[in-house]
Each structure stands twice: as C-alpha cells, then as structure tokens.
Amino acid sequence: MTLSGRIRLAVVGCGYITQAEHVPALLTALPRVEVVAMIDPDGARAEAVAAPFGAKAFVSFDDALSAGGFDAVLIATPAKTHVALIARAAQAGKHILVEKPIAYSLSEAREAIRIVAESGVTCMVAYQRRYDDDCRRVKTLLAEGAVGEVRAAVSQCRLTFPSVYAGYAPVVKAASDASHETGQDFRADWLIENSIHHLNLMRFWLGPVTDVHAAVYREQDHDLGIVTLSFGAVLASHHQLRGMECGEEISLYGSRGALHLSLWYPHRPYAFPRIVLFNREASTRREVILSRASPYTNELMAFLDHLRGEAGNVSTLEDSLEDLLVLKRIKDIATYTAQAQAQG
Question: CA-to-CA distance for 98 and 128, rounded, in angstroms?
C-alpha cells in the first residue's frame, strides 16, 4: 500500500527516547508528516508531548485506534509490549515504525513477522544507526575498497545515561538474581538493548554472522560483556562496558589499512562523530569530512519515503529477527561457559 501527501502519524510511548529524539525528528519532518496523536499511560505526559504538534493525547492505543485519523504509528514503548502493539496496529491497517528490539522472545518476533505479512502493512524497525550518515558513509567506503579486504573488527559500547535521563523516565535496574518472564529468551540488559546496535551495524557492513566463538556475560550486574564472532572471513570482537564512560567506537582492519569510527550520540553533546582512515602503504591518516543530520531524522524520513514508495525498507522485521538469533547464540554460549567454570 503506497501513501501520498502528508502522512498522519500516531506515537505510542512518550518517554525518554520519544522526547529526546523522536520529537525533534518529527518537528524537522513537518509538514511531510502530521502528528495527530500521542499515546502514553501517563495522561499528563501524553498531553505535554502532544502540545507542540497540536495533537490529541490518549492514555491507551485502543482509544487512539477508535478515534482514528492516522495512517501509521511509531511504537516507542518497552520491548515486552511491542508485539501486542504491532498486532493491533497491523490488524487496523496502520503502517508501523517500531523501536528495537522487536521482542524479548524469538517466538513473539516470529509471530510479529507473520501478523505483519498477513495484514499487508509495512513494518520498519528503528535501527537508527543504519540511517546514520557516518555509518552509511562507512558502508560506501568499504564497498569502494578504502581498507582493502576487511579482516578484523573491534567494537566498544560504553553507555552512560546523562543526568537529565531521570527527568524523562526512571532507571530501574533488574535484581541480580531475577529470572526473565516465562517464555522470554532475553531480559532488558546490555545484550538486547545496547549491543544489538553494534551487531546489527556490523551485519549491515560485513554480512551475516557465520559463527559465535566465545562470550562472557556478567550475570551479576548485566553491565560487562565480551563477545568474539565471525562475519565470514572477518574476525570480530565486541566489548560492552556499560556505565563506565560514554562513547561508541568501531574499528575495521583490512589488507590496505584501517577505518576508525566514533559514533554520534545526538542527545549526548559530549560525544561527537568521527571517521578516520589509515592507509598502510603511505602510513597516513585522514579524517573523512561529511555533512550530518540526526540519525533519527534520517530514519523517519526513510520511513516516510518508504510509505510513499520512494525507497526500500533496509531494517525489516525479518532482518531484526536475525539479530535476536545471534544474541540467543551469544547468551547460550556465555551461560554454558559460566556453568562450566562454576563446576571447575
């Protein structure tokens, strides 16, 4: 189904990521998009976030669906609610942009894929890094052979929430011995919430994960993790150091040189993007200069273009399921390793 004209959008979830990222992106996208509804269980928060758009505020998605008047929905709620909301939206014929991860269980992710396929609506997963100008430039540079044949990759994710975060939403840390809900393959921790971005991005650049070699997963605090894996002939390591600093870097090493990417945190002004290329033969380094827009703005524009039939969907539900399958392998290997060490 291809849309034309101004696309009418409802937003479900008015917490931190909506206020810090999606609202600025939506304001930038005016008048290509019209925000007609903001939905949040906290009615006062829904009204406050709706105000800049002159949108209606609702405390439930069902109430918004009953009122109607929109073509698509942006789902920015906790992941455990995603599949139910995807199902309601798809069955109502609404196109969907949903935050990652799509679910905490493989079975629910597959159910979401089935429902969307049967309904005929579009569903795009909000992996904003795939729409990041620096990340897209890296993909082009690799295709052009800027570092030759890629042989190795090293990624680090060091997430520290800014102090203003508490003003948007409370930070709730899971108890160290808490088991995840029945039927769920993951809990809300670094693996599924943060590392998923790096794994998705490296798949975007390097192709599918072909093997997971080792994984260390700190169950007691969920903040530390080291993973080694392969993308075909490329050996990669991922390091999660949550809460220790703020910044994300990925380095790619090839037969002709190396590429170092510092990722942008749009809502954290103390982390700036940078691409540096090293040429091994000439022993030179140069910074790649490019213009940049917010990845969230680019992501929203790509969603609108796709609904108009002007662009493809590069972050599908099916592709997102691949991330969950890799993460499940990582978690299983880490659990097996921890059990083997405990048994001596």
Answer: 11
> By C-alpha distance, which of 263, 300, 295 is closest to 35?
300
Neighbours of 283 (CB within 10 A): 8
Residues ≥6 apart with Cβ < 8 Å to 207? 231, 232
CA nearest 135: which of 263, 289, 248, 259? 263
259-266 long-range contacts, CB within 8 A, separation 24+: 259/138, 259/141, 259/142, 259/146, 259/147, 261/134, 261/135, 261/138, 263/129, 263/132, 263/134, 263/135, 264/132, 264/134, 264/292, 264/295, 266/21, 266/294, 266/295, 266/296
Q: What is the pTM of this model?
A: 0.92
What pLDDT score does 92 carry? 97
3-class SS at 73? Answer: strand
- Per-residue pLDDT reduced to its tens digit, 282-304: 999 999 999 999 999 999 999 99
